[in-house]
Specification:
This protein is 59% helix and 2% strand. With 401 residues, it is mainly alpha-helical. The protein folds into two domains: 61-312, no CATH class; 318-401, no CATH class. The chain has a three-stranded mixed β-sheet. Helix 1 (29-51) packs antiparallel against helix 2 (68-77) and helix 3 packs across helix 8. It is globular.
Length: 401
């Protein structure tokens, strides 16, 4: 295993920087394919948020009242954020293999602050005009940005220490759930950003909503970086796949066992008498904000299994198509959210509100039609941008998008 390599001074995470050519310079297709798969799921989720807000999904969802299709769809899209954050850590490790500690630190800091700025000055205003008060939504891009900045310091730890820290944060952060601060407490804004999903006031009539408290996400990105050694060029594919299979099935098994015990890791599930479907929905209704231990176990475990699947069918057209989306994730993320908001505000201007103070469709079945109609128009510019990134290595700013 790569972790056995003797590290010279300055090595990252206890691993020596390999010689030139030891690791392929291009990203592995299965990693990009998994990232692309997540982006496709994300489109479905954001379609619901944009056009079908009259079908609310609470956190966790109410298994007694929610439409079953939405309950299962919500569980499917739950894989997006954990996998994306873990792959961010993995991607940073692969970047660090061919770069010095200083170069990797510089990249993490620049990319981290850029992501935070994008969330504040571009993504948040996309929602203004829909929500009643101008709000800075501190969502997944904000959380990833902060996690990258923190990872710039954590990556210097020995690999075992980094993985241990990640496990502690992921497994035990729910012990902090009883700590609830109020706006009168001076530490309230900080705690809201760390672990307590909440809203706090800002100057000029703005408010900030900490949709993605970052403490467990720091654990996820640390674990993603920690398993990066499995993807080094000298690790045999069968060894990597065996490790990922053990990790994936182990996490899913741990989820089932802990969920059946119903004592830790999330709010309790319950049996809905005479309705096994809703009982299943209750079992998989997991807290995302912040992500509970039981939310992260099946999603990250499923991501590990998908990495194996995509590596084994690497030559398929499906993997190639998904890898296009995964090769330009930030571009696709900004593009699809922008297009959805333009379409929404156009519909609102043309037809006006049809349900309270917003425009929305009344038939949830329309979401599949919208998905089919949008996937190809979004795919084409993403293909162009992904190819541009690969062709113009001289344009270093492209790596930040």
């Amino acid at each position: 295993m790569a972790s056995s390599i003797t590290a010279p001074p300055g090595a990252i995470g206890g691993l020596a920087p390999p010689r030139t050519g030891a690791v392929a310079s291009v990203r592995l297709a299965n990693i990009d394919a998994l990232r692309g798969f997540v982006m496709v799921l994300m489109l479905l989720d954001h379609l619901r948020e944009t056009w079908f807000v009259n079908y609310p999904v609470t956190d966790p969802i109410n298994a007694v009242t929610i439409l079953p299709a939405i309950g299962f769809a919500r569980f499917a899209v739950s894989f997006c954020a954990p996998i994306f954050v873990a792959l961010t850590g993995l991607g940073v490790y692969l970047f660090s293999v061919n770069h010095t500690v200083e170069e990797t630190t510089s990249y993490l800091l620049k990319r981290g602050f850029l992501l935070m700025a994008i969330e504040l000055v571009y993504l948040s205003p996309l929602y203004w005009g829909i929500v009643p008060q101008p709000t800075l939504w501190l969502q997944v891009i904000w959380a990833i940005g902060i996690c990258m900045i923190i990872l710039a310091a954590l990556m210097r730890l020995p690999r075992a220490a980094l993985i241990t820290l990640g496990l502690v944060l992921v497994c035990f952060h729910n012990l902090l759930d009883p700590i609830r601060l109020t706006a009168e407490n001076a530490l309230f804004p900080l705690w809201a950003m760390l672990h307590q999903r909440d809203v706090f006031a800002l100057p000029f009539g703005l408010v900030a909503k900490t949709t993605y408290p970052i403490l467990p996400w720091i654990g996820v990105i640390s674990l993603g970086f920690g398993v990066g050694a499995w993807f080094r060029g000298e690790v045999l594919p069968e060894v990597r796949q065996r490790n990922l299979l053990l990790l994936g099935f182990g996490m899913i098994g741990a989820f089932i066992a802990l969920r059946l015990l119903n004592v830790y890791g999330d709010k309790p599930w319950f049996v809905v008498e005479g309705d096994p479907v809703r009982t299943v929905i209750s079992f998989i209704s997991l807290t995302k904000y912040p992500p509970s231990l039981l939310f992260l176990l099946p999603t990250l475990g499923g991501g590990a299994l998908l990495l194996v699947l995509f590596e084994r069918i690497n030559a398929s057209r499906l993997v190639a198509a998904l890898a296009i989306f995964g090769g330009a994730p930030m571009f696709f993320y900004l593009l699809h959210l922008t297009v959805l908001r333009i379409l929404y505000h156009s519909a609102l201007a043309i037809w006006g509100p049809n349900n309270g103070n917003a425009y929305m469709f009344d038939n949830y079945n329309w979401i599949l039609l919208w998905f089919v109609a949008m996937i190809v128009p979004l795919y084409l510019p993403t293909v162009w941008y992904a190819r541009l990134k690969r062709r113009r290595k001289d344009l270093t700013w492209l790596r930040y998008f």
